[in-house]
Specification:
- This protein has 500 residues and is of the alpha+beta class.
- It contains twelve helices and 26 strands.
- It has helices at 16-27, 52-60, 64-68, 108-120, 172-176, 245-256, 304-323, 333-358, 362-377, 379-386, 427-431, 465-477; strands spanning 9-12, 32-36, 49-51, 72-73, 76-80, 86-91, 103-105, 125-129, 132-137, 144-149, 155-160, 162-165, 181-196, 207-210, 217-223, 226-232, 265-279, 283-284, 287-289, 295-296, 416-418, 424-426, 436-439, 456-458, 479-484, 490-495.
- An eight-stranded mixed sheet has the order 6-5-14-15-16-13-17-20, with helices on both faces. Strands 8-2-1-12-19-18 form a six-stranded mixed sheet, covered by helices on one side.
- A hairpin with a 6-residue loop joins strand 9 (132-137) and strand 10.
- The protein is globular and about 65 Å long.
- Bound molecules: flavin-adenine dinucleotide (FAD).
- Flavin-adenine dinucleotide (FAD) binds at residues 12-18, 35-38, 42, 46-50, 108, 132-133, 166-168, 172, 192, 272, 291-292, 299, 302-306, 308.
Amino acid sequence: MTADDRRDVIVVGAGPTGLAAATLLGQYGLRVAVVERYQDVYPLPRGVHLDDEVYRILHRLGIGEAFAAHTRPAAGLRLVDDRHRVLATFTRHGATPAGIPQANMFDQPALERLLRDRLESLPQAEILGGHEMVRLDTSDAGSVGARLRRPDGSTVDLRAPYVVACDGANSAVRGQLGIGDDDLGFDQRWLVVDVRCALDLDAWDGVHQVCDPHRAGTYMRVGQDRYRWEFRLLDGENASDFEGIPDLRPLIGPWTRTVPDTGLELLRCTEYTFRARVARRWRDGRVFLAGDAAHVTPPFIGQGLCTGLRDAYNLAWKLAAVLRADADPALLDSYEEERRPHATTMIRRAKGMGQLMTGGGRIASLARRHLIPALARSQAVRRTLLDSRTPPLTPGTRISRSTPRAVRGALLPLVRLAGPGGEPVLVDEILGERTTVVALPGTDLAAVPGGHPSAWLTVDPGGDGGERLLARWLLDAGVGWVRVDPDRVVGAAGPARWAR
Ligand SMILES: Cc1cc2nc3c(=O)[nH]c(=O)nc-3n(C[C@H](O)[C@H](O)[C@H](O)COP(=O)(O)OP(=O)(O)OC[C@H]3O[C@@H](n4cnc5c(N)ncnc54)[C@H](O)[C@@H]3O)c2cc1C
């Protein structure tokens, strides 16, 4: 093996998770090879929604501004019954403090194109398109070998200290390592329909969930002229029963009455089996699973791709820190500790939404008709459903258990602060790639565990806009400082009594 065959990290799979992981690693200056069996972006639409936390990751990947041209905000969520009577509407009123919408609709191939272009702009990173990873060699204690089949059928070997397997739901790496998964108990066949239409459909501009045990469905506007429906298939039905718009009319009719068949271009109509599963282990020595290779979810709350990007974001800085000898390799244990419970929670939420739409028979439908409007009037339910924040990460190797609960494992709120020229910039741009202490004025930084931090940011409650919001967040949590890692997760915090 020559130096040419060595990398710092090999990433298997150039889906959104692999591209995001490799880009972050490349931004840390690491030599990364992404092995992808296809030559180019997988052209068919799948994911259509991402939340503000994941949009924040896109900014860190350097494609936040470019993504803005490919996305539109969704107005919220509406639950309707089998006759399309509104049960409840949860309207999202605008954006987060940094101006990022909570729900963002997009087309997955367009996002993957942006991710690819960004990765290809990094000198240390490369995509080996048309290369299939056929076998990993994990026999060496210090590195992992990957045998690849080139487009001409010949093979080539690469070696790296770490491999990140982002090779999708049927992960060959997971299979080779003999890692099973926990079945969270969801298995349904759904029809996925993508349509282009130049006319506006006469429909409320958010996500519609049809709560109907006979024919549950989802509708959403994805782009200026792009629409997505998903319908549960009945026994004996399959995608070939719905080959054209006239076949689909009985399903999409409630949203498309005002548009003639000629105004609706069917882009794709296909069947997916929605499952809820989590790999039992996310790590085997120097190999990590991420994205759909580690978890699959029904798409009802639009979190599959989001979860993969969160994995990549959590793992990349830790790998970089360990490879640069800035952190103990034990830090890598925190990846599974933190990400597995979080992913499991998000899958359970998706499953819950699926059950709300599909569960029970006529009696359950009647109950839903009365219960959902009543629940929707509760402020607590509205707050929970409209809050796009996901749960905090589990404490363990990285996140100190003694950190006050209000901030432990939480993300530092995304705000805009004054940049070098006074212009508003995202706080993440100011924090950069370091671990930073964010503190109220007067905090005794010498009292922060681990010694005087090399980077800190002081936020004054009397400051402007974003600075005041961050200070308020610390005060409300009853802390004077938080330690924020490069993934913006709070790993430690200290009491407010140190603050003035
Ligand atoms: C109908 C539908 C709707 C969805 N809606 C949403 C949504 O709204 N929001 C959301 O967040 N998610 C959504 N998802 C989920 C989302 O599409 C997936 O979670 C996401 O694509 C997973 O990304 P990934 O990179 O982990 O895996 P993949 O996208 O599957 O990528 C894996 C890559 O690995 C490559 N590969 C596999 N094996 C090898 C090998 N041996 N050698 C080389 N390359 C290999 C594959 O070719 C592929 O390119 C939806 C999914 C579906 C099906």
